Amino acid sequence: METARRAGPRRARRNRSSTRYPATAPTRYGHGEQMTGPPCEQPEVSPYGSFEEEGVGVGAANGTFGELLQGVLPENDLDFLVTFPITRSSTAEFRFASSCREVMVRPSHKTKSRLLAERILRAHGRHGGGYLTITTDLPEGKGLASSSADLVATARAVGEAMGVRLTERETESFLRGIEPSDGVMYPGIVSFYHREVRLREKLGFLPPLTIVAHDAGGRVDTVQFNQSRKPRSEAEKREYAHLLRELTVAVEAGDLRTVGDIATRSAEMSDTLSPRKHFGDLLRICRDVDGLGLVLAHSGTNLGVLLPGDEDEQTDRVEYVRKSCAAFTGSVSVYRSLGPEGQRSDAPGRFEDPETPEAPFTTSVGHNPGT
After folding, report:
1. DSSP at 342
2. Which CA distances in Å does 370 have to 219, 300, 366?
3. Which helix (H) or strand (E) holds 301?
């Protein structure tokens, strides 16, 4: 069973100017990759060379299980989503060195995180680069905000290495233009304009919830998914606005039944555009266990049954859902929601209204397990 991970950065060491990383001693980084160090000032020693770190930062950011609600609002015709934070997360460690020519990232395909690190360094007048290492327990392309979590964790790590705490708004501005983003830089549940990378409103927190998710397999390219507008009628946009108002009240009141009903309706409306093969089956299973509803990764491959409480309080119902999904192609995973205890210790506690812009355990089943 997956262990909850704190979604805030741990205290990092800073300004350790005497730490050297030998060019001849490769170190293992995430995803089984080997790396000897970034290209620095001593190419005669090795193609990478050794370097002296001048600041170390560690940052973390949680993922979100799809969205409690996603659609288009009539007043501004902007796409929005409502996050559903979970305990799984990404962690980034950044070792800054002015002697390095660039930022080196592991795993090497995390190029957007490298771009973000360089953007932040340059904006703060820092010349050089360093080592960026990302580890995560969020699978990619599944609708769990893995890319957004990587980027937010990177921003926090780079900021800490520089001795600067980036605000959520500053993090937004650095992410803008790199890709559409979930609102995981903010604590709790938020409504967010993901294409514009802009907060709409902070909604609050919910009591503990468990999601038993069926993953149909494959991956979804979130950037490509968000490049095309989803056709919605004016009546549908008005319904989304109504659902958002209801969800805002339900989160504040901790009304889990209403939250589940709204999440189910959002999933149903999405299913009219992108049908899910086992949508009806999951809805039936949810009713069998008296679940709260279905929650969908609108731009991913997961569809989950929402249950109240922690997983250890729902053992029989979790097992029923898992066994019921055994006939489906794909895989089944269990996720836990993230409450206020898992947020950054330095995050603001109040939920003031912002200025609104015009803003494990994984068991494979079937014949084609998801990645």
Report:
1. G
2. 9, 12, 10
3. none
Residues 6+ apart with CB under 8 A from 115: 178
Torsion of CA 36, 23, 90, 221, to 10 degrees: -40
H/E stretch holding 27 reads strand 27-29
Name residue 336's beta-bridge partners.
Answer: 210
Distance CA 52, CA 40 (A): 9
Is residue 215 helix, strand or coil? strand
- When mean pLDDT is compared across 49-63, 123-137, 217-231, the lowest value belongs to 217-231
Give the span between the Cα atoms of 266 and 187, in whole angstroms. 22
Nearest-angstrom CA–CA distance, 27 and 40: 16
> Residue written as tokens 């007048």?
125
User: Which tokens is 304 given?
Assistant: 């989950």
Question: What would the pLDDT profile of 347-360 be if each residue is shown by its tens digit?
Answer: 433 333 333 333 33
Are the beta carbons of 193 and 101 closer than 8 angstroms? Answer: no
Maximum Cα–Cα distance for the chain, whole Å?
Answer: 68
Among 240, 247, 67, residue whose Cα is nearest residue 145? 67
Q: Please name the residue ranges forming H helices in the chain.
A: 111-123, 146-162, 168-175, 222-227, 234-253, 256-271, 279-288, 315-324
What gap in Å lies between CA 165 and CA 170, rounded to an integer? Answer: 10
Token couple for 296: 């969908």
The DSSP symbol for 178 reads: T
Cα–Cα distance for residue pair 2/137, rounded to 1 Å = 10
Q: Give the gyration radius of the chain's Cα atoms.
A: 21
Residue 366 to residue 281: CA distance in whole angstroms: 15
Neighbours of 5 (CB within 10 A): 17
CA angle 48, 51, 55 (to 5 degrees): 130
User: pLDDT of 170-192, one tens digit each?
Assistant: 999 999 989 899 999 999 999 99
